[in-house]
Amino acid sequence: MREIVIDPRGAWRTGISITGLVALVAALFWGIRVGAVPFSTYDIWNVFIAPSANEAYQIIYNIRVPRVLVGALTGINLALAGCILQGVLRNPLADPGIIGVSAGAGLAAMSVMILWPGPMALVPAAAFLGALLAAGIVFLLSWDRGIQPLRLILAGVALAAFFGGGMSALMVFHSDKVQGTVNWMAGGFQGRSWNHVQMILPYSLIGVLGAMLSYRQLNALQLGDEVAKGLGIRVEKARFFLVILAALLAASAVSVAGLLGFVGLIIPHIARMLVGSDFEYLMPCAAVLGATIVVAADTVSRTIFSPVEVPVGIFMAFLGAPFFLYLLRKGMQR
Amino acid sequence: MNHTIKAQSITLGYGGKVIIPKMDIVIDKPEIISIIGPNGSGKSTLLKALSRLLVPLAGCALLDGKDIYQLQPGQVAKIMAILPQTVHAPGDMTVCDLVAYGRMPYKKIFEKLASDDQECITAAMEATGIQQMLHRRLDSLSGGERQRAWLAMALAQEPRILLLDEPTTYLDIHHQLELMKLVRKLHQDMQITIIMVLHDLNHAARFSHRVIAVKDGLLFADGPVEEVFTVENLRALYGVETTIMTIDQGGSSHLVCFPHDSCLKKEDGCAPAVR
């Protein structure tokens, strides 16, 4: 009985948690310090201890801090959405794109930017609504006394193709106005402000709370529907709420960050390699990892070719995909 | 307490296609009960309906007189545990993680495993003989070990009724026999009602008290092994000729059947030679 209490993975998990949190704090701190105008720790300290309306305060408080926060929250939301979807759909290829969120957000945002150009402030709201609308359609299409995972995946793929066609049509017929939309499509955090933090924060909180409430259901669901039902889980209900939760998380993320692929697919896999597939540990690990990687990648992508800023989505795809393939090979040899 | 499962003019099927038109069954004693029948006869479908995995098209499945779909799923999970035919789990999951999931019906949200849960988990692992594999990953286990780990998870639910859907599939004859003996031991030690779908007739004959034979969705025979296990019944069920013999071993005797090709009487000179 004592043996159960002493889990050999305990020390490893504690180590990962501490390392992850330290890395996240370091990434946030570094993201605030570096840039076109570098700051010292003392400057940052001053902004929070003795706020004064000088240049340092303006840059740190109004530009850098909201930017790293939006990045961190986006990372958390996408990573959690990916974890939940991979668990609920029992498919390792599931990511927030699979429930139509990316396609819906993309088409809505693009329509606003091209057809009703004007206040860019409308774009996040349009993207959010587009994402939820698309997720809702996928939802309805996959409904047969509960969400059917395979139908959901196929409906998501079909809808993404349909909306993708819409986006291509917009680009072809309005090729002169495409320029402005390209950056958004690639995903990035340029010019993100406290407004964006406010937009995404409530959903991050809902996501974290939902993850804490549902890790047992997710654990049971990955044993298969029948076993989960045998353990007393209301499978259809759990799946319904979890997919809605994932849709909200992903929609809020794409609405502030644009189409940032990759994070929602790869981060859950890396977290799984690190701490295993118990959702009690998997989701916190993925959330911290997602936040850290998005913030760090954003910081690198805006400083490496300064003053030119590479959209973080492109940067992450170029570095992250090979890294993931490396991990995959390493994992296979083991 | 003795629990009763009852199927009351139950009609079962998938997507409008009826598999079992109308069936009545009562299981009210803690026995080992095997459900046999040819492929596609509706054995697994019946087991699913009794275990709250399949909503009946008509009629109902009752647990202690109450429709199991009116009961809380968590409540049912404390009385019966199910081991489906094919199960899957992430390979990196450890044996003790898997067995611990059996305590899920007893835990409220945010409630951690307490020491009585740990005792239950340990007892379940000892009962199935996997206490040495506590921290092994599931993907490092052999087929027989893995099946025992799943069985331990079901036992950690402290069920009074255990439903097994072809528990010996994918096991070699050694592990099949070990598993069947384990099932019998669990029944003897804990007085659990065991309802299982079996393909191996000899296992059904040796290890069960009662055999339910299903053919084309209908209850073909239901009773003690000696009653159901006859040449006539097996011929009607499977369309196969068999020779049924009694074997004495370990101080008890049980029936075995040997299937063979043709339906010829001895006097025709073509009966299989038994030397």
UniProtKB/TrEMBL annotation, chain A:
The main place the protein resides is membrane
Note the topology in the membrane.
Answer: Multi-pass membrane protein
Q: Where in the cell is it found?
A: Cell membrane
GO terms for cellular component:
plasma membrane
State the UniProt keywords alphabetically: Cell membrane, Membrane, Transmembrane, Transmembrane helix, Transport
Q: Biological process (GO) annotations?
A: siderophore-iron import into cell
The family classification in the record reads:
Belongs to the binding-protein-dependent transport system permease family. FecCD subfamily.
Q: What is this protein called?
A: Iron complex transport system permease protein
Specify the species.
Pelosinus propionicus DSM 13327
UniProtKB/TrEMBL annotation, chain B:
Task: Tell me where it resides.
Answer: Cell membrane
Keywords of the record: ATP-binding, Cell membrane, Ion transport, Iron, Iron transport, Membrane, Nucleotide-binding, Transport
Q: Which InterPro entries match?
A: AAA+_ATPase, ABC_transporter-like_ATP-bd, ABC_transporter-like_CS, P-loop_NTPase, Siderophore_ABC-ATPase
One Gene Ontology term, aspect cellular component: plasma membrane
What are the ABC transporter domain coordinates in residue numbering? 5-241
Topology with respect to the bilayer: Peripheral membrane protein
Superkingdom field: Bacteria
Q: What is this protein called?
A: Iron complex transport system ATP-binding protein
Which organism does this record belong to? Pelosinus propionicus DSM 13327
